[in-house]
User: Fold these one by one.
Assistant:
Number 1:
Amino acid sequence: PLYRCVDEAEEYIGAKGIDNDTLVLAYDDYKGPNASGVWHFFKSYGHDKVRIIDGGMAQLKALGVPMKRGDEPKVVEKKFKIDPNKIRYDMLASKEEVLKASNAITANRDQAKYAIIDTRRFEEIIGGSKLDNVARGGHIPGATFIEWNNFSDATKKMSFKDMQTMQKLLDSRGITKDKTIYTYCHVGTGRGSFVASVLDQLGYKNVKVYTGSWDEWGNDFNLPIRR
């Protein structure tokens, strides 16, 4: 994954015509996970000039922004440089770190200084559905279940609901700002990063995406699971 391969990431991003001065605007249909994956990708590499277009394609079309079909346009390649000293490791979590949090939560949830948010569908959480590349279905012990689309407004075709509604949901699930919060999905850069972007908007400071997510956890038989 590009998260772990700085040289490949620099080459890939530069080939898209992006340099360190470029403002990156990320969008998808309107739901948010794909755009938030791009947002988290750039932010974790220390590139703060990245934004998510709330409502994505749906809102751009509503505003009359011209659209074009077909192949990706050719661009002039640029040089994108990742400064190792600016990589946001505080936004990324390893399985060892998540395991420590899981153990603390299962030992005493009320006193634990951590929260783990599983952003996947209910069928995935209970182990009834999994992708073929994962050996085991289920979830990380101690995780709080908040499916990502609870924060997305399908009625208005907006990526995010209003701030008050999103905060109320988090409050109801005990996701407080004094905790270190880990989000995960299947691969991290989608539903997990979407919920991380929600937390970022709401002022949560200690938020990490478990980039290995269930793709890694479900295939490691040394790690505990629940169904």
Number 2:
Amino acid sequence: MPRFSKIIFVHGGREAYPEIAAYHQFFAPRYETSEARPKNISTRPDLEKSIVWMIMGFYPQRPLAGLVIHDYRSLSVGRLWWVKDRIKRFCNAVPDVRIFQNEDMRDAMGFSDDVPVCLLPMGVPPFVTDYRATPATSYDCDFCYIGAMSAERKTKEMLDSFVRRYGTSKNFHLYGTPEPFLPERYKAYPNIVFKGRQNQQDVFAALMHARVAVNYFPNHHPHRMQTPTKLLEYAALGLRILCNEQRQSRLTAQRYGLSCLWGAAHDMFAAAPDDLASWPSNEAFDPAPLLWPHIIEASGIAVLLETLSLENSRTA
């Protein structure tokens, strides 16, 4: 029998990681799964028989676990990001497996050892298909955006572009927590509505009543290397999508065959038409390749863990 019967997902708890819920659901039939914070992992009595799956930050010490995974879901942000990533490259402990979202993130971190690597992109939850079953017959807004609204992401570029193009003639609903200056900046535009942060199910329901879903993704580090998760969700819901030009968004659309209207990188609404039904939606798109069970299975991580577990059981 495989030596390892448990997986402990370790993360700081400050960020939302939808992939952790997907990991639990996928691996629960094979392993006992749980979560822990970095400061508490050393107190777990079951480490020797556990796979410790770390959502990566700065972890220079290796837990005394049977198997350790370093999962790089994002790269460093803010000032001196290159210094932070360089420190992680040289000072993080050596794991048994590394996971990256894509080739760009793997190459950016630049590890040169022989640790096995899996590429595990972002996915969408299987329940997204429930919303496709009942297409909207009425609309609450013209444009809808979900995601982070921070100064670091330069969200005001997206909203300034919208104002220049449409003024108050079309409405725009935004879901997420905005930087405080954003509602103040656009208070003269009652058609720009900040709806706040809501759970994923409620946001999906709201998206089904939007004429167009907006995929604004920054063109600076680290976003130019990371998969635009919201683009996947919009496509899986079958929506009509407006994107700004961005390398990862283009690669994602090409990889899965998504239909999008492409606007300029920093002025995405400039060429958007008045007729919001004038370009194809993704209603005919099959979301199966985007669903988390398929994404995780295709990454090869499940097979690799079984192989490493068996190897460890033979040498124990």
Number 3:
Amino acid sequence: MPALALRGLVIFPGMILHFDIARDRSINAVEEAIEHNDRRIFLVTQIDEDVDEVAAENLYKTGVVAEIRQTLNTPDGARRVLVQGLYTAKLCGISQDDPFLVSDITPMPALSDTLSAAEKTAFIRTIHTEFKQYSEMSPRMPIELYRGILAEKDLSKLIDLIVFNVYLRVEDKQALLSCLSLRKRAELLVKFLAKEVDIVRLEQDINEEVKEALDKNQRDFYLREQMRAISRQLGEFDDPQSEAFEYMDKIEECGFDEDTEEKLIKECEKLMHLSPGSQEAAVVRTYLDTVLDMPWNIYTHGKTDI
């Protein structure tokens, strides 16, 4: 059967989706399927999506036989293909790789279902709980889809709905596609959803920390500018505040890391409140002058061979 290698995409039986293809072998495989194979084509995902010349060892062993519903040429010379997944199949080998891939496949058996009604209910509730947590942290999900998934009471259909519409890694989707047990598939989905929830939560924490750091830096800069403007209005540019502002300007120009810059700014703020002739003010000035006179971020190439 003509085969098409997918990049970063896993299709499941029953799924309808479109994608663009540009490689000659992919376009040839689609044309062969339409003209000589009743529009049937085997879709299988690449293990390494950066590889152009695909070999059997760079393809997952489980794929889906799909029906090509429509094709469309795009302005950039690619081909947009609309397909519907029909059934899963095992890749036994590649018998031809030019001018298109020809696969030797074996249809996989239907999904085994040994779960009791109570076990199915328990899995459905667990999946709904994990999905709710994921959705609360992913506000881009359409409300109709969200409600439809929570209203689904058939375990197999629920798994399909989530796999079709929730972001999961290619490796995780491939593991679900290869699984022949409803129990195992449900267990894997719970595991993958929980992992995605943890990742999204971690991303939010990182973004919040970055935002807080940026807000603090912007606030400190704004307050310093306000103090500088007040000093100008009061004609106090010969006082310790003016001197401290000059040091702050030099510090910002040096491009220090955040911790170093924060420490030096604190020394400048201390200088603002000291008497210009005090011994402590002299110590702070000496410290700042010594630090700022050092060749920060300036490198020379020296010979280390003695």
Number 4:
Amino acid sequence: MVEKLDIIELKGLRPRYQAALVASGLVDDVADIVALDVRPCRLSEGDFVCRHGDAAESLWVIVLGSVAVREGDRTLFMRQHHEVVGEQNLLGNGCRRWYDLVACESQVELLEIDKVKIEQHPQADLLWRNIAKIISLKLKDASIKASTQSRQLEDDTRILQAYTNEYALGRRLQAGGRKLTDYKVERAIIWFSDVVDFSRHVVELAPNRTADIVQRFFNEQSSPIISNGGHIDKFMGDGLMAFWILPSDGSASEKCNDAVKAAEEAIKAVALIRIGNDSLHLRVGLHIGKVLSGDFGSTTRHQFTLIGPEVNKAARLEQVHEEDIIRGSGAIGAIRMSAEYRNELSDLISKRYSNKMMADAKNIGQIEFYC
């Protein structure tokens, strides 16, 4: 409960009250402090100094303890001893409180000063100028804090983007406070890629040189995947998994065309990376089908990904070698796509991938594909 102290005690203005007023900046250069007729009050933790919507008729100087500026259940600022609170709402006529002011310690002591006493004071102009300075300093401090929080948010966003893709992040935000996302059966394009004979290329290289090359060829794949609407799922050694979630209306042609465009761009870009006299060669497996998406792993560590037979099929397409071919002729192209995938392509693009082959894929059996 708020306890009003005996006003008579203030006629001599206790030194600690005077010290609080001076330290607050409210009475700088003011000759007659007693004329403000300050009223001390004591509060306990959780007591309201004022509530949102109350008429704004006074301000307070904190002598002891701290006061929270709250909007509903959210604390916006904490004001400490020797700070002024409630002053912003005094500007203008008929103003009401914007926020709740709540005592935050077991013992909080305030000095209350009525707006009418400020207006009637012989040095009212000086008092209002001091109040304006206090507000200005608070706004400057709030601006600095907002800028710091904005930079922190940008840093946090960059960290999140470094370890997850936008689609996975969106699903996690939908899950709210839960640890795991919901699981969905979705139709998706699945991409697997790998650098041919990468281990042979780097066996004699220094670790830093190997790391630099890995970073480069992942960058050369990630850029066209993302720019063409795809999402990076994971990096696995020198391999990469990506996906495109398809719209619920069943239309897949545009995204399938985009994924082929990304694959063609990535293959050309990776081929420009050389180790000695050797260029790197990328191979890509593309498939389309229904997958189960969500967070998978243990209770302590998990990752958003896609799983299911169609994911395995895309991985096997990327891994097809000459010895796996049981029907078809010619060299296996760098891009290997399932028959289901090719059926979704525009006629112009599908004509470029007309070499039909059949391969015996590990743990799957025979798969038909085009390259």
